[in-house]
UniProtKB/TrEMBL annotation:
InterPro entries associated with the record: RmlC-like_jellyroll (IPR014710), RmlC_Cupin_sf (IPR011051)
This protein's name: Cupin domain-containing protein
Organism: Bradyrhizobium niftali
């Protein structure tokens, strides 16, 4: 099984969007969304992070992160875990090698604007749970069992939705007909600011979402 490449000998360093197994699936004026799946035994060679990055761990394995000139480190993670890294303040060059036996997958996004303060997310009622709140993003986890519903809430800032566990969800948006969604694990959606909406699990499986709002 391949291990991390040595930093000796001035290795090639590429921007994140050109790194192996980093798939840029969406981009707009606010952010660049990345879907990263590193198979067992594979390496995402040295790449550069210069923008703040928020992510959700979708599949976990033994993944060695090696900073340029440093030593490899394996940090245990959990599926659904949310992480933010302030790369604007402290840029990093590193590589990631999957030395485990299953896929290592994250879904996340780089924030283009280096300065926060454009948006102000509002609090959300239970069963939404705040899982991240910093100077760049607010993130909420929503877990709905079959038949459960989330009360009305307003999304005051633009952001993204990532589906950790899929199922059939009915989304109600104020002033519009209810919208039934067949969500799949790993689905991603851009969400504009403004609408007041409700969510109801109309299926037979647990649905888990992580929703980010920009600041």
């Amino acid at each position: 099984m391949p291990r991390q490449a040595s930093a000796v000998g001035d290795p090639e360093i590429v921007p994140i969007e050109f790194a192996s197994f980093h798939d840029q699936t969406f981009s707009n004026e606010y952010l660049q969304f990345m879907n990263v799946t590193i198979p067992p035994g594979q390496i995402a060679a040295y790449h550069r992070h210069t923008r703040d990055f928020a992510q959700v761990y979708m599949a976990v394995s033994d993944a060695e992160g090696t900073p340029l000139g440093g030593k490899p480190v394996i940090t245990p993670r959990k599926v659904g875990e949310v992480l933010f890294t302030n790369y604007t303040k402290q840029p990093v060059v590193h590589q990631v090698a999957n030395v485990g036996t299953s896929d290592f997958r994250i879904m996340g996004f780089e924030i283009f604007d280096s300065q926060p303060g454009r948006f102000a997310p509002l609090a959300r009622p239970a069963p939404y749970v705040s899982v991240m709140d910093n100077h760049r993003v607010q993130a909420w986890r929503l877990i709905l069992q079959p038949g459960e519903a989330a009360p009305p809430m307003q999304q005051a800032a633009p952001g993204v939705r990532i589906v950790v566990q899929g199922g059939v969800l009915v989304e109600g948006v104020q002033g519009k007909p209810d919208h039934k969604l067949n969500l799949k694990y790993g689905d991603f959606a851009w969400q504009n600011a403004g609408p007041v909406r409700t969510m109801r699990n109309a299926g037979t499986s647990t649905v888990e979402l992580v929703e980010f709002e920009l600041k």
